[in-house]
Every structure is written in C-alpha cells, then in structure tokens.
Amino acid sequence: MRCPYCAFLESKVVDSRPADEGASIRRRRECLSCHKRFTTYETVESLPLMVVKKDGSRQSFDRNKVLGGLIRACEKRPVSYQAMEGLVAEIEQALQNQMDREVSSAEIGELVMERLKRLDEVSYVRFASVYRQFKDINTFMAELNKLLEDK
Predict the structure, then answer these.
(1) What's the order of all strands across the beta sheet hosting 37-43?
(2) 51 and 108 in contact (C-beta within 8 Å)?
C-alpha cells in the first residue's frame, strides 16, 4: 500500500477491525519509511448485476424496483416493511451467488413469487396477477386453484 505522505510502497498493518457492520475491514498502517500512520479500508469487489428485460434491453439491477413491487402487492396486508426488505435482500443475495452477471427479469419475478407465496398468499396473488398479466378470470382462477392445491 502506497504511503499517502511519502509515496513509499512498503507499510505494515498495525491494527485491523471490521467496519460497516462487517462489510469491510478497517486497517491502520504504518509507513516503513516515514513512520506516519494512515487508515485503509478493504471491501469485497462486487460486479454489477445486469437485468435482461423482455424486450432484450439491459439495465443494472435495482433492488428498489423489486421493493416497490412488493410494497404495492403487500399494500393493506399484515406484512411488515422489514419482512419485505428481508425478502429483497434474500433475492439479491441469491442472484449475486449465481455465477452469471446477467439475469432475466422473468427469473427475478419467479424468485419474488416463490418467496412471496410463503410470506402472504394474498400478496402473492396480487403480485402474480400483475407479473403474469392475467388476461381474464379463468387464468386468475387457475392460479388460485394451484395455490389451493399446494396447501
């Protein structure tokens, strides 16, 4: 690590501790040339996750869009904001754990529905009706019947 005071390339680590709730490591270093101390932070480099939309366009993953969809689906339902945040974090982590840097919007929708079904069935049906674009009452009833069969 280059010293910010004298630009010497050698330093020693004096102290290390977690920072940002474990998301990074704070290191106190001492330059081996001028003996001044400085702080560095070490974080995991994460590559951006790209979402491939139905029309083939690509945009970066935005957890706020997923959260917004969940908030609309769970409106006036007994689902806490923390539960929705946790669900989004779980989905984002599952997507980050995949080796692909590109994911389809359909895959994200399926992950949301899979987890939302366990959280609140009414919210699940609301989300599914928008996501799957139910054209008529028959497709809506088919989804409800699948839900009842799973029980």
Answers:
(1) 11-19, 24-31, 37-43
(2) yes
70-99 pLDDT per residue, tens: 999 999 999 999 999 999 999 988 998 887
The answer to whether residues 19 and 28 touch, using CB atoms and an 8 Å cutoff, is: no
C-alpha distances in angstroms, 86 versus 36, 54, 67, 125, 136? 43, 26, 10, 20, 33
b/e string for 45-73 if b means 16 or more Cβ within 10 A? eeeebebeeeeeeeeebeeeebbebbeeb
Contacts of residue 5, defined as CB under 8 A and 6 or more positions apart, other chains included, come to: 31, 34, 36, 38
What's the Cα-to-Cα distance from 65 to each of 61, 75, 138, rounded to whole Å? 8, 15, 29
Give the residue among 74, 11, 69 at the shortest CA–CA distance from 38: 11
C-alpha 10/C-alpha 33 separation (Å) is 8
Q: What would the two tokens of residue 125 be?
A: 């049906």
pLDDT tens per residue, range 59-68 = 999 999 999 9
Q: Report the amino acid identity of residue 25.
A: I
